[in-house]
Amino acid sequence: MELTLWTYEGPPHVGAMRIATSMTGVHYVLHAPQGDTYADLLFTMIERRDKRPPVTYTTFQARDLGGDTAELVKSAVRDAYERFKPDAMLVGESCTAELIQDQPGSLAMGMSLPIPIVPLELPAYSKKENWGASETFYHLVRTLLLPLAPPPGSPPRESVTAAATRENRRPRCNLLGGTALGFRNRDDVREVTRLLSDIGVDVHVCAPLNATVKDIQAMPDADFNVVLYPEVADTTARWLQKTFGQPTVRTVPIGVLATREFVEEVGKVASVDVSALLERERAGTAQVGASRSLLPWYSRSVDSTYLTGKRVFVFGDATHVMAAARMAKDELGFTVVGIGTYSREYARPIRDLAAALGVEALISDDYLAVEQRVTELAPELVLGTQMERHIAKRLGVPCAVISAPIHVQDVPARHSPQMGFEGANVIFDTWVHPLMMGLEEHLLHMFKDDFEFSDGATPSHLHASPPAAGAERPARAESMGAQRLTPLSSRELEAPEAASAVGFAEEEDEIDAVVAIAPIVTSWMASAEAELKKIPFFVRGKVRRNTEKYAHDRGIAEITVDIMYDAKAFYGR
Fold first, then answer.
1. Cα 238 to Cα 227: distance, rounded to the nearest angstrom
2. From the candidates 303, 317, 455, 566, which is the catalytic residue?
3. Confidence of residue 63 (pLDDT cuts 50, 70, 90)
4. Which of 403, 439, 507, 560 has its Cα between 20 and 30 A from that of 423?
5. If you average pLDDT over every residue of the chain, what do you get?
6. What's the pLDDT score for residue 467?
């Protein structure tokens, strides 16, 4: 086992805690020492919940190890039932308790309590939090629904259309996968529910988020299931499809394109006409006031052309990474230079996506390895977790959080989904703002010592008046070798040939000085020229000069794209 200062996922019992905390009427008895109760803070501090998680700890101590720790489990289960009167109970052990092998789930099963008991065996030293949440949700659903399963040989389930017509209702579905501590799960559920309603589909049960035991028992009454977060719900959805014949919608609606595909898939499964909604949200034609998502319009507007080709690195859970990479490439025109995930269970689809993008996938839960990869790739934007936010800050790179693990600032009080057409708007704002702020800081840093932007210089090229009398005129940048500057008269400013002087003319000795140190680099590769044209016009000249000076100082005769970014990194420091 490798020791580390930070992990992307907690142990699997934290995943079980997320399921219990998401639901009503479910209590979790955790066989654990007192030190493992830290997990409470994840919910009360980060998600700002108004009550602690429904968890009872046995809190055994070192002195208890010499006695009957099994009796501690029984006592904790009994006390939890009598105090909280839950409708169902999860019983498991933490990573520390796993070592003493008390098997608390089996002990609780033998106590004959009048409620369903779900024993959990979560190998803490080989599995992580998301896997623990998936296993807990699956075993809870299976325990509650197995008595309701149709016997072998039963006739196949009637179609969605037939069931809805017979019962004189709209098609209905279950939303699966949303949990406490999930990234914007609460808002996603609300947004997807609204989207489905617009399609003509009702949400029957949302689970585990906000679900009760009775809700779980009613899940077979839905016509189909929608998997919002495969990391949590995929195993359960497969069992429901196998056992009850419920179809599954697997498209995750993150991004405009994916949301359209989601609507189309729901339309096919539920046999409803979605053409009107798709026409309203037709990709690439969205207009202010005409459609819900403004991302296609904004991303293609004149003011957003500076986004084209931005180099982006993406890291997080598999669901959000795959969605973000697609959005970055296909909807915003970014260049994805690297992707990765800490979810080892989804290593294969991440590697497949990386191959399609022509990049190398990083499958790791070591944040130091992620930091190294970000350093090597030198992206212009990082899309990641709260850990990548710290990494990007140290490296001076803009960052937007797209995935758990999260911090309190990633749980906003406002409605802020990631899914659906409104979610695409939120994502656009979230990703673009760091780039815009970074551009602003870049401009301030780049021009802070430039003579053209000095207080002593002529206000702008639109003004003919010289600097105020007595104002000190700064010297030209050392790289240009200027010695002194002479302000132009009003008459000179009116002449076309003086239009580019920005209020100053160089004397002959200055010109000679400039020529004397002129860069020896005269050759730009076509690819570098093309990359230069992507830079906003008002800084393009400065970038060209900085790049040529960088190459000149190092005796480089030909400027490539790599040389441009090397120069950027050099002057950025």
1. 10
2. 303
3. low
4. 439
5. 82
6. 45
**Residue pLDDT, tens place only, 463-501:** 344 444 444 444 433 333 333 333 333 333 333 333 333
Q: What is the DSSP letter of 468?
A: P
CATH number of 12-147: 3.40.50.1980
What's the whole-number mean pLDDT along residues 232-253?
Answer: 97
Mind listing the pLDDT tens digit for each residue in 457-469? 444 333 344 444 4
Block residue for tokens 């016997």? 151
- The region, left, alpha or beta by phi > 0 then psi within -120 to 50, assigned to residue 168 is left
Secondary structure of the chain: what % helix, strand, coil (to 5)? Answer: 50, 10, 35
Tell me which of 4-13, 153-162, 266-275 is least confident: 4-13
Report the top-level CATH class of 295-445.
alpha beta
Q: Tell me, what's the pLDDT at 435? A: 77
Q: How far apart are CA 524 and CA 11, in angstroms?
A: 53
**Within 13 Å and on the Cβ side, how many CA atoms surround 339?**
31
Strands 172-176 and 88-93: unpaired
The superfamily in CATH containing domain 158-280 is Nitrogenase molybdenum iron protein domain (3.40.50.1980)
Q: Which residues of 532-547 are buried (b: 16+ CB within 10 A; e: fewer)?
A: beebeeebeebbbebb
Task: Name the β-bridge partners of 60.
Answer: 33
- Cα(551)–Cα(572) distance, integer angstroms: 16
Which CATH number among 1.10.3720.10, 2.170.30.10, 3.40.605.10, 1.10.8.550 corresponds to the domain 523-572? 1.10.8.550
**12-147 and 523-572 agree in CATH topology:** no
429 assigned to active site: no
Are the C-beta atoms of residues 184 and 406 closer than 8 Å to each other?
no
The string of pLDDT tens digits covering residues 146-172 is 999 999 888 988 888 888 889 999 999
Burial of 302 (0-12, 13-18, 19+ CB in 10 A): exposed
Candidates 518, 517, 498; CA nearest to 506 is 498
Q: Which is higher by pLDDT, 286 or 380?
A: 380
